[in-house]
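thread from #wetlab-drylab

HS: before we spend reagent money on co-crystallization trials with NAP, can we at least see a predicted complex? here's what I'd submit
DV: go for it
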Amino acid sequence: MNRPYIFCHMLTSLDGKIMGNYMDLPACEPAGDLFYDIAFGEDPFYRHQGWLSGRVTTDDNFTHYRAPALTPGAPTVPEGDFVAQQAPMYYVSVDPKGKLGWESATLTYETTTAHVIEVLTEEASNDYKAFLRKLGISYILAGKDRLDYALALEKLKTRFGIQVLMLGGGGVLNWSFLQAGMCDEVSLVVAPAADGNPNTQSLFLAKEGLSTDAPLSFTLLGAETSEGSTLWLRYRVNYGPATQAP
Ligand SMILES: NC(=O)c1ccc[n+]([C@@H]2O[C@H](COP(=O)([O-])OP(=O)(O)OC[C@H]3O[C@@H](n4cnc5c(N)ncnc54)[C@H](OP(=O)(O)O)[C@@H]3O)[C@@H](O)[C@H]2O)c1
């Protein structure tokens, strides 16, 4: 399959939560710094060209649940994908129906600047595509009413030159890609903290219509201790016969 190498890189609590007020503890700071440095620091481990995020993660962090400023009845856009520009780093947003209220084609995450690519299905409207074009946001079409994973990933590689892609959460996005066979490695930075909240998202979350609770197994690639009781764990995802119980 012609797709980028994909690693899922996440910061978690001791109990596998990717959100929550445990993140406000000073004890979580070294883990937060290590999480950033591994992927985005001056000498990063993976050297990816883009990171993929689910629609909820993007709304929580960048678009803040704004409605997109659509022009109703916008002139019909040309068919197919829209490559606005090439960039050294891309933020790849999985937004099948076209809901996100972007205001710019560029975002900044700490010290990292990235060009936004929207991954849409054919359910996204002409008005939404016209809105993205007006802002200079690239988009690719992958699937009719469900995400076509292989097509999306092939386009990210061939149209934008993404050779290594970070699967960057949240839990719903992560699990859907893992179950679809579209994740090679999981990289977890585990903070020595927890808050016991029963309602926050965990690292992997099945969602009806996107994924199920069919299990997967993993093989440890590395385990390192770091400053402040932080752990960095790397696993290969076992697909095929390796996922069966011995
Ligand atoms: N600790 C960390 O390292 C870390 C990293 C990233 C995110 N987070 C946190 O995780 C939280 C969000 O996680 P979440 O699991 O609730 O949501 P999510 O994975 O960010 O977003 C889920 C939504 O994305 C779209 N989507 C995801 N996978 C899809 C697929 N395979 N096909 C089609 N659409 C797909 C769907 O959008 P529609 O609903 O529009 O159909 C789905 O409802 C945020 O609060 C964020 O801050 C933490």
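DV: Residues 182 and 211 are 13 Å apart (CA to CA).
HS: ok that's useful, forwarding to the group
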